[in-house]
Specification:
The chain has 222 residues and is an alpha+beta fold. The protein is elongated, with a radius of gyration of 21 Å.
Length: 222
């Protein structure tokens, strides 16, 4: 299906668009329907196509995110010309988990603002974000509207550097339901710890991205 892959690369079949009918595709590509179905199955397994229950097969949308720059979801989404959004799952003040306490250099008796939300781009769910910020830095979760970094900016607490790691997993039932995918869909998990100019840890965030939709890029030089 080199011709099909070239059509995607050249924008003839834009990412996120639905495929034409099998009849039209087999005619345009000059292949039999049996060959076409076999090729589509292969491209689905490679992640180039996506099948949605009860709808047509579509060209998988892909979103690129640089892992070399310290930017938030809202900034990345606006840079792609899309509207960022969030569906709040929880916002609370709690004592930190052991991993949050270690990342933020807190004792287990101190408090963090923990926020969990489903992040969207033009209304499409793309990621599940769970952020923890020391309450000494962010007094209340109500200060965060659309963007955590906008709220930190308003407090003069914008992070200037960070460490992050990326690992692969698969979606369980809960993640899949939130992201509108099938269980077992690839999942990319990014954990980020960010710091103020004076070295204080300001944010520990775990973001779970739909692996069918995201590509992570980094710049290398020698």
């Amino acid at each position: 299906m080199v011709a099909f892959q070239e059509s995607v690369a050249e924008g003839v079949l834009p990412r996120g668009s639905f495929l034409p009918s099998e009849r039209d595709l087999s005619r345009d590509l000059s292949v039999s329907r049996v060959t076409l179905r076999r090729a589509i199955d292969e491209l689905v397994s490679e992640g180039l196509l996506v099948r949605r229950h009860g709808s047509k097969t579509m060209v998988a949308p892909r979103y690129e995110k640089s892992i070399s720059n310290l930017t938030g979801f809202s900034e990345d989404t606006r840079a792609r010309g899309q509207e960022p959004g969030a569906i709040w799952l929880s916002k609370k003040i709690v004592t930190p988990s052991s991993s949050e306490a270690m990342a933020l250099n807190l004792t287990l008796s101190e408090h963090v603002v923990r926020m969990e939300r489903l992040r969207t781009a033009d209304g499409k769910p793309l990621a599940i974000e769970r952020a923890a910020v020391p309450q000494a830095i962010l007094p209340s979760p109500d200060l965060v509207k659309d963007s955590l970094y906008d709220a930190l900016d308003a407090l003069g607490m914008h992070p200037l550097k960070g460490l992050q790691r990326l690992r692969a997993s698969i979606m369980g039932k809960e993640d899949a339901q939130l992201l509108g995918c099938e269980p077992g869909t690839p999942l990319l998990i990014m954990e980020r710890c960010c710091f103020l100019q004076d070295g204080r840890a300001v944010e520990f965030t775990q973001t779970r991205y739909n692996g069918d939709s995201y590509e992570f890029l980094t710049q290398l030089q020698r």
